[in-house]
Amino acid sequence: MEIPAAVSYDARAILINGERTLIVSGAIHYPRSTPAMWPELMRQSKEAGLNTIETYVFWNLHEREQGVFDFSDRLNLFYFCELAEQYGLHVILRIGPYICAETNYGGLPSWLREVPSIAFRTYNQPFMREMERWVRFLVDYIRPLLASHGGPIILAQLENEYENIARRYGAEGQRYLRWVSELGQSLNMGIPLVMCVGAAEGAIETMNGFYAHPMLEQHALNHPDQPAIWTEDWPGWYDTFGYPHHIRTPQDVAYGVARFIAAGGTGVNYYMWHGGTNFGREAMYLQTTSYDFNAPLNESGQPTTKSRHLADLHQILHRYARLLLEQERPQPQPLGEQQWAYTYASETQALTFLCNDAPLPASCLLGEEKIELPAHSVLLVGDGTILYNTAEVDAAHTLQLTYQPVEQAITRTTWYAEPLPTQRPDALQYAVTAPRPVEQLSLTHDRSDYCWYSTTLSTSGEAEGTLSLIGFADVAHIFVDGQFAATSPTPLLEGRGSFEGPAFTQSFNLSLAAGQHELSILSCAVGLIKGDWMIDANMVEERKGLWGHARWNSTVLEGEWSMLPGLLGEQGALFGAGSALVTWQQKSSEDINQPLRWWQLAFRRPQSEGAFVVDLNGMQKGLAWLNGRCIGRYWLTPATGEPESWQKNIIFAQNTDAPTQRYYHLPQEWLQEENILTLFEELGGDPDTIALCQVETITGTQAHPSQDDQE
Ligand code: GAL
């Protein structure tokens, strides 16, 4: 007897050990939670009917410094996959190494930009050399986890949505993509290779989007021998600072999945199933620290209305999996203009999907019975009984998210002032001087968000004027003669176009006396971009700080510039081991709204078990650490930005005008008996307003599961 390959596929499905398998998968990115959270995430995933966990691999985090690898703690990919296996879950590994994913540089290490003659994601030898070196190393590392070696990994992805940039690189891009596929084959993984949205021969091409059924016909025409796999079903969306929180209803997510399976899809992966947190400085440009994504499991890893509503659907799909997978894709039977029935039937079983694609309710006949189909819904009818209605959420499934302040948690608040460049002791002046400003990343190597730019500004008489930074990114805080004077207008744009365009010019109205002034600009990077389209150039061109020039009204500032990468407090590790090296001041009532302040807040571990966050509503912008570990960037800028129009009627805006992100996740695992929360506050705020809160989900409230209140 021939032993079937561990994983293979045919036109209908992925086969695992020779068995057609319906893939119900959820994305959980291991660096976006802590290892102590993983078992519970896996348990809940299994309980909600997933049989697979998908993760990207984060090259940017595993190899932060060239040649220095880290697979410890949150980066313990091996343990993460082993845990999935222990919980009876398969794994889809999306290796990239370009992964997009709202992570710094789309998953590519920032040191790559310093490789001579490199261009990313096209037929460029320096890039391909580095990529191949990493991919071979990684695959050797995880090889025992491949299904072909008895492990849980059933599919591997290389590259990511090449289609989005294919036009930019033309034939060279296609040549690169073929090389990627050949690299994939040469790794001898013994499992199928997938490529999403843009594939080369040798890989299964998969789909991404809010809905995938509209892509099915084309997919079948392009790839008649491949199953329909949806690698990214977006159950919500990511948030960016300055824009509203994004939500998608559980009903619409369920509709999308049921509609896809009805029409013949046999693999779906929720991107994200658990979004988690962008710790440290790992978030891409503008991306909030929370990567909650309005995913079925919330940022703290708790279930939501969405996970419960989907769990019911999964259960039914698994019950009928065999029936679904053993037949050709059924032809739709029209029930109305935008209403269809898809039936899967054998001698013993039948499952019909009644689909209403219209934005209005409709009705149809099922045998003699008249059935109401809510707007945008799918009803699953099994052997004559309505088993599930995507538009109806069981009231008992409704969960609401709450933040309960922990009383009197904070016991001590102290501060230390980050000096302006001119106030730094001579011995700590690591300034670079040049006749022109020098681009920031070439100085910081992305090891800090910060860089000071200082020069002299001379005014002749004008009281009011405009300081313009031409060729600048991302946020500038302007100090004149040691005093805070202005900051960048918000919201910033996610897609800024070319470096010559208006999005890279910022202007500040200042009122200055005649004479010479000391101008110090604190440039704050808010993460690296994730794709070429964000700057209309190859990602390698990414820039921060001031690379152009500054103007006072119409006069270019011609004096010498002095650049100081990083903060003194960062260099001295005030958030951790270096804290004891300086004298922290007790907070007094005058100490509010002071820019450039390091704050330390001491608090005891809360008595209760559970998930905790810190409410930073009274602060403005900076970085935060818990017991020496960076919990991420914070920014309380109001969500005044317009939502993207292409997501209309799918993604809804919540929290308009309030800060995009107010609550910041404090992982349980990082809490101790006595804790120190350190903030570097760039602009000022009142640390007395900071509160520790417990995150809870309340069951069965009267809350109606609409897009306004579901979590
Ligand atoms: C996709 C991409 C993912 C992620 C997602 C949005 O296009 O493949 O990596 O960026 O969009 O969250």
Question: Can you describe what's shown?
Answer:
- By secondary structure, the chain is an alpha+beta fold.
- It folds into four domains: about 5-325, TIM Barrel, CATH 3.20.20.80; about 335-395, Immunoglobulin-like (Sandwich); about 400-415 and about 570-705, Jelly Rolls, CATH 2.60.120; about 420-565, Galactose-binding domain-like (Jelly Rolls, Sandwich), CATH 2.60.120.260.
- It is about 15% helix and about 30% strand.
- About 50% of the residues are buried.
- It binds beta-D-galactopyranose.
- Beta-D-galactopyranose binds next to loops.
Draw up the topology in text.
Blueprint: E1 7-9, E2 14-16, E3 19-21, E4 23-28, H1 38-47, E5 52-56, H2 59-62, H3 77-86, E6 90-96, H4 125-142, E7 153-158, H5 163-186, E8 193-196, E9 204-209, H6 216-222, E10 229-233, E11 245-247, H7 250-262, E12 267-274, H8 305-319, H9 321-325, E13 333-334, E14 339-345, E15 350-356, E16 362-366, E17 369-373, E18 377-382, E19 385-389, E20 399-405, E21 410-417, E22 432-434, H10 441-444, E23 450-459, E24 464-473, E25 475-480, E26 483-487, E27 505-511, E28 515-524, E29 545-552, E30 555-556, E31 561-565, H11 568-571, E32 585-586, E33 597-604, E34 611-615, E35 621-626, E36 629-635, E37 652-654, E38 663-666, E39 674-681, E40 691-699
Parallel strand pairs: 4-5, 4-12, 5-6, 6-7, 7-8, 8-9, 9-10, 10-12
Antiparallel strand pairs: 1-2, 2-3, 11-37, 13-14, 14-15, 15-18, 16-17, 18-19, 20-40, 21-32, 21-33, 22-31, 23-28, 23-31, 24-27, 24-29, 25-26, 25-28, 29-30, 33-39, 34-38, 34-40, 35-36, 35-39
Bound molecules: beta-D-galactopyranose (GAL).
Residues 99-102, 160-161, 208, 232, 238 line the site of beta-D-galactopyranose (GAL).
InterPro entries: BetaGal_gal-bd, Galactose-bd-like_sf, GH, Gly_Hdrlase_35_cat, Glyco_hydro_35_CS, Glycoside_Hdrlase_35
Pfam family, one: Glyco_hydro_35
Domain Glycoside hydrolase 35 catalytic: 14-315
